[in-house]
Amino acid sequence: MVKVKQERRSFPPLYTLKPSQQFSLFEEKLKETVNSLLQKRTTNRALKEVMKRKGWKELKKIEKKFKKFDSYPLEARKVIYNVFYRIFQRLDWALNSGSEREIEIKVWITSSIDYLNKVIKILEDNYG
Q1: What is the spatial distance between Cα 27 and Cα 22, in angstroms, rounded to a whole number?
Q2: Around Cβ 112, how many Cβ atoms within 10 Å?
Q3: How far is it, in rounded angstroms, from Cα 23 to Cα 80?
Q4: C-alpha angle 58/61/65, rounded to 5°?
Q5: DSSP for residue 72
Q6: What angle do CA 83, 54, 45 make, to 5 degrees?
Q7: What are the phi and psi torsion angles at 42 (to 5°)?
Q8: 47: closest CA among 102, 124, 126, 127?
Protein backbone atom coordinates (compact mmCIF):
# COMPACT_ATOMS: atom_id res chain seq x y z
CA MET A 1 0.00 0.00 0.00
CA VAL A 2 1.28 3.44 -0.92
CA LYS A 3 0.61 6.33 1.41
CA VAL A 4 0.47 9.82 0.02
CA LYS A 5 1.13 12.71 2.33
CA GLN A 6 -0.35 16.00 1.27
CA GLU A 7 1.78 18.92 2.35
CA ARG A 8 0.03 21.93 3.84
CA ARG A 9 0.66 25.28 2.25
CA SER A 10 1.71 28.23 4.35
CA PHE A 11 -0.89 30.52 2.80
CA PRO A 12 -4.67 30.56 3.20
CA PRO A 13 -7.13 29.75 0.40
CA LEU A 14 -6.78 32.73 -1.89
CA TYR A 15 -10.09 32.27 -3.71
CA THR A 16 -11.94 33.62 -0.67
CA LEU A 17 -10.01 36.91 -0.75
CA LYS A 18 -10.51 40.04 -2.84
CA PRO A 19 -7.56 41.22 -4.97
CA SER A 20 -6.72 43.95 -2.43
CA GLN A 21 -6.70 41.38 0.39
CA GLN A 22 -4.49 39.07 -1.66
CA PHE A 23 -2.05 41.93 -2.18
CA SER A 24 -2.08 42.75 1.55
CA LEU A 25 -1.21 39.14 2.31
CA PHE A 26 1.60 39.33 -0.26
CA GLU A 27 2.90 42.54 1.31
CA GLU A 28 2.90 40.94 4.78
CA LYS A 29 4.81 37.91 3.51
CA LEU A 30 7.22 40.18 1.63
CA LYS A 31 8.01 42.27 4.73
CA GLU A 32 8.37 39.15 6.85
CA THR A 33 10.71 37.58 4.30
CA VAL A 34 12.82 40.72 3.80
CA ASN A 35 13.24 41.09 7.56
CA SER A 36 14.35 37.45 7.84
CA LEU A 37 17.30 38.06 5.49
CA LEU A 38 20.51 39.37 6.95
CA GLN A 39 20.81 42.99 5.82
CA LYS A 40 24.63 42.99 5.74
CA ARG A 41 24.79 39.99 3.42
CA THR A 42 22.25 41.32 0.97
CA THR A 43 24.09 41.94 -2.29
CA ASN A 44 21.31 42.01 -4.85
CA ARG A 45 20.89 45.63 -6.00
CA ALA A 46 17.23 45.16 -6.90
CA LEU A 47 16.52 43.72 -3.46
CA LYS A 48 18.25 46.66 -1.79
CA GLU A 49 15.97 48.96 -3.79
CA VAL A 50 12.93 47.12 -2.44
CA MET A 51 14.19 47.57 1.10
CA LYS A 52 14.66 51.31 0.69
CA ARG A 53 11.78 53.75 1.05
CA LYS A 54 11.54 54.02 -2.73
CA GLY A 55 10.67 50.34 -2.97
CA TRP A 56 8.04 50.50 -0.26
CA LYS A 57 6.49 53.53 -1.98
CA GLU A 58 6.32 51.49 -5.19
CA LEU A 59 4.46 48.78 -3.28
CA LYS A 60 1.95 51.37 -2.05
CA LYS A 61 1.29 52.40 -5.67
CA ILE A 62 0.74 48.77 -6.59
CA GLU A 63 -1.58 48.38 -3.59
CA LYS A 64 -3.79 51.25 -4.81
CA LYS A 65 -4.14 49.55 -8.18
CA PHE A 66 -5.15 46.27 -6.55
CA LYS A 67 -7.86 48.09 -4.59
CA LYS A 68 -9.31 49.14 -7.96
CA PHE A 69 -9.23 45.51 -9.09
CA ASP A 70 -11.79 44.58 -6.41
CA SER A 71 -14.49 45.97 -8.70
CA TYR A 72 -13.14 44.40 -11.90
CA PRO A 73 -15.06 41.60 -13.69
CA LEU A 74 -14.79 38.01 -12.49
CA GLU A 75 -12.49 37.15 -15.41
CA ALA A 76 -9.89 39.67 -14.24
CA ARG A 77 -10.18 38.57 -10.61
CA LYS A 78 -9.52 34.97 -11.68
CA VAL A 79 -6.33 36.15 -13.37
CA ILE A 80 -5.31 37.91 -10.16
CA TYR A 81 -6.07 34.79 -8.12
CA ASN A 82 -3.83 32.74 -10.42
CA VAL A 83 -1.08 35.35 -10.15
CA PHE A 84 -1.05 35.30 -6.35
CA TYR A 85 -1.38 31.52 -6.21
CA ARG A 86 1.76 31.27 -8.35
CA ILE A 87 3.59 33.88 -6.26
CA PHE A 88 2.82 32.14 -2.95
CA GLN A 89 3.63 28.74 -4.41
CA ARG A 90 7.04 30.08 -5.46
CA LEU A 91 7.54 31.51 -1.96
CA ASP A 92 6.96 28.06 -0.46
CA TRP A 93 9.50 26.60 -2.87
CA ALA A 94 12.01 29.34 -2.02
CA LEU A 95 11.59 28.84 1.72
CA ASN A 96 12.10 25.09 1.37
CA SER A 97 15.04 25.21 -1.03
CA GLY A 98 17.72 24.28 1.50
CA SER A 99 21.21 25.65 0.91
CA GLU A 100 20.00 27.95 -1.89
CA ARG A 101 17.31 29.47 0.33
CA GLU A 102 18.69 33.02 0.51
CA ILE A 103 19.27 33.24 -3.24
CA GLU A 104 15.83 31.82 -4.01
CA ILE A 105 14.15 34.29 -1.64
CA LYS A 106 15.95 37.22 -3.28
CA VAL A 107 14.85 36.00 -6.70
CA TRP A 108 11.29 35.50 -5.42
CA ILE A 109 11.08 39.07 -4.11
CA THR A 110 12.33 40.80 -7.23
CA SER A 111 10.56 38.53 -9.72
CA SER A 112 7.24 38.77 -7.84
CA ILE A 113 7.22 42.56 -7.94
CA ASP A 114 8.14 42.54 -11.64
CA TYR A 115 5.42 39.97 -12.32
CA LEU A 116 2.79 42.04 -10.47
CA ASN A 117 3.72 45.14 -12.46
CA LYS A 118 3.34 43.23 -15.74
CA VAL A 119 -0.04 41.85 -14.72
CA ILE A 120 -1.24 45.30 -13.64
CA LYS A 121 -0.31 46.73 -17.03
CA ILE A 122 -2.08 43.92 -18.90
CA LEU A 123 -5.25 44.17 -16.79
CA GLU A 124 -5.39 47.95 -17.11
CA ASP A 125 -4.95 47.68 -20.88
CA ASN A 126 -7.73 45.09 -21.20
CA TYR A 127 -10.21 46.24 -18.56
CA GLY A 128 -9.40 49.96 -18.31
Answers
A1: 9
A2: 23
A3: 10
A4: 140
A5: S
A6: 80
A7: -75, 115
A8: 102
